[in-house]
């Protein structure tokens, strides 16, 4: 893969309420199966940044793939999980400057 397959991205920061951290972790680890079904999503990572802080990074070849992801089932599940969260998820569009991806 070249950087042409991962030119655009999304970076999300998710802060769980302490009593719901495991549920948020389970939501994110389960979402990998949904990400695998998204043809426009080149890479997708769910991250744990701290005891109650999580992140998601994903990349796309084009704006169409990024938009489809934002309108897809993972985004919907995340928005429906707001009772588990300490604050609304912070989702930022980013440009990928360089990437090392599997061949």
Q: Let me know the average pLDDT.
A: 94
Q: Major sheet: size, sense and barrel closure? A: 4 strands, antiparallel
Large-scale geometry:
elongated
What share of residues are in beta strands?
Answer: 25-35%
Sheet with most strands: strand arrangement: 2-3-1-4
- Stretches where pLDDT is under 50 for at least 5 consecutive residues are none
Structural class call reads alpha+beta
The DSSP helix count reads 4
Order of helices and strands: EHHEEHHE
Distance between the termini: 5 Å
Explain the overall architecture.
With 103 residues, the chain is an alpha+beta fold. Helix content is 30%, strand content 29%. It contains four helices and four strands, in the order E-H-H-E-E-H-H-E. The protein has helices at residues 21-30, 32-36, 63-70, 73-80; strands spanning 8-15, 41-48, 53-60, 90-95. It has a four-stranded antiparallel sheet with strand order 2-3-1-4. The mean pLDDT is 94.
Offer a quick outline of the entry.
The chain has 103 residues and is α+β, with helices and mostly antiparallel strands. It has four helices and four strands.
Topology:
Elements: E1 8-15, H1 21-30, H2 32-36, E2 41-48, E3 53-60, H3 63-70, H4 73-80, E4 90-95
Antiparallel strand pairs: 1-3, 1-4, 2-3
Defining key terms:
103 residues; alpha+beta; 4-stranded antiparallel β-sheet; 4 helices; 4 strands; elongated
């Amino acid at each position: 893969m070249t950087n042409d397959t991962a030119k655009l991205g999304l970076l999300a920061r998710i802060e769980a309420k302490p009593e719901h951290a495991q549920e948020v972790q389970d939501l994110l680890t389960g979402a990998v199966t949904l990400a695998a079904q998204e043809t426009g999503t080149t890479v997708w990572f769910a991250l744990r940044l701290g005891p109650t802080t999580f992140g998601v990074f994903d990349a796309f070849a084009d704006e169409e793939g990024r938009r489809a992801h934002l309108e897809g089932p993972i985004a919907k599940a995340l928005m429906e999980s707001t009772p588990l969260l300490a604050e609304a998820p912070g989702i930022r569009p980013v440009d990928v400057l360089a990437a090392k991806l599997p061949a």
